[in-house]
Amino acid sequence: MILDQNGNTSIITQEKATVIELVKKLQALYPKFKNNNIIVVLTTLDKLSLQDIVEFLDVSNRHRAAKQSFVIVSNSINLDDIPDEIIVVPTIQEAYDIIEMEEMERDLGL
Fold first, then answer.
1. Would you kindly state where each structural domain of the chain is located, as residue ranges?
2. Fewer Cβ close by (within 10 Å): the C or N end of the chain?
3. Does the reported pTM lie above 0.90?
4. Which residues pair with 10 in a beta bridge?
C-alpha cells in the first residue's frame, strides 16, 4: 500500500496486497486520514470483482457520513454493476473531479 497526500486528499495505491488485506489496512490506518478525502487506486489489479468493490462499502459509508469524499479508481470492472452507495471511476482525474463536485455540494449545504 502506497500512501500519498495531495492537499486535503489521501491517495492510497494498491501495490501487492489483496483487496481484503488492503481494506483491513485501510481500516487500521483510518484515523490517520479520516479528515481527508480518500482516493483508492486499484488500477494495478487486472481482475476485480463486484465483491472486491463491496469490501470497501463500510469504510466508504463511514467516511461519507463524516462529510468526506471516498472514491475508488479502477478500469477493470463494469461501472454499471457498482451499487450507488460507492463511487468508482476509471481515472484519477475523474476521482478529483468527483471530489471537487462533492466539496462544492458540501459548501452549498446540499
1. 2-68+85-108
2. C
3. yes
4. 5, 38
